Amino acid sequence: MGADEIPGFWAVVPAGGAGTRLWPLSRAASPKFLHDLTGSGRSLLEQTHDRLAPIVGDRVLVVTGAAHRDAVRQQLAALPDSAVLAEPSARDSMAAIGLAAAVLERRGAEVMGSFAADHVITEPDLFREAVVAAVDAARDDWLVTIGIQPTFPSSAFGYIHQGEPLEGHPSVRRVVEFVEKPSVPVAEEYLATGRYRWNAGMFVVRPTVLLDLLAERDADFAATLRTIAADPDRLPDLWEHLPRIAIDHAIAEPAAESGRVATVPGTFGWDDIGDFDSLANLLGEQETCSILGDASLVHRSAATGLVVPGSGRVVAVIGLDDVVVVDTPDALLVMTRERAQDVKAIVAALKDQGRTDLT
After folding, report:
1. The dihedral of CA 172, 174, 176, 177: what is its sign?
2. What's the pLDDT tens digit per position in 27-69?
3. What is the pLDDT at residue 18?
4. Where are the domains of the chain?
5. Would you tell me which CATH number, out of the four given (3.40.190.10, 3.40.50.720, 3.90.550.10, 1.10.10.10), belongs to the domain 9-271?
6. Residue 74: exposed, middle, or buried by beta-carbon count in 10 A (0-12, 13-18, 19+)?
7. I want to staple 144 with a disulfide (CB 3.0 to 4.6 A). Which of 49, 134, 252, 265 is the partner?
């Protein structure tokens, strides 16, 4: 065991979602977690594994769609086949994380933590500190989430309302409630109190506690997940009957109402790269266009924003501010950073037209 490993702790990595706001770079067949979006030479999935490996060693379980299993196995070739669970279809996060919990319960895992495959986290030492505090609280049967310190009043994230410190765990606080995405003025009020954190969907919990919390709300759901874990051959038949629901709605919010959820403030750098505006901020150049890809293909003059050359063609941008240009072999996106959230509507329109080849 490495010096930084947390004994008895497993990492679950949900690797799903199409990242539609990053179209045409991210698509259903090649979602954002399989891409290098930081210029590091490592995909977001590989970076997630790199970040977790010192903490958990080989105790990693990736849950992904059947269509992406081979790509995940290729990128994480050092993991055994048993480390990748393939969902027959997308059933949202409760089914994915719940299945991992049922499998880990049978393997005798003490505590598990769920960390998305498509987030960027800096300051790994601070990340580990937060995880250690969360694991310690989870050993006392709390459902623990890691709340991100807000850097601006965002309306794109849900929020965690922090309460009083948890007895015996000075760096952990009780969760008063989870709050859905607010308006910017409401988010400003949240930040002014200093008692709210962004909800990044990181949950640390004992597998049995997670499944028992689910069983309180939906006994059949929890029982089916345990049945699949006991007999994996039944996965294809039983999976399609599972509810489509997020873990937040299925267990986190109800458990918070009954006072069984705690949160660890995360002070490390974090970004979920939700759209091209976020990606431009992450890449960092303000006085000229940031480039993700082969810089020799991009010519820019008196322009700011983001250029992603991906077709092999030369891209020239002149005299435009806060522009986004994403060039792929079969689709070209040009927009302002201000309209980054609107990309999802383009993907929806293409699906309505039956252009599944593009989405």
Report:
1. positive
2. 999 999 999 999 999 999 999 999 999 999 999 999 999 999 9
3. 80
4. 9-271, 285-352
5. 3.90.550.10
6. exposed
7. 134
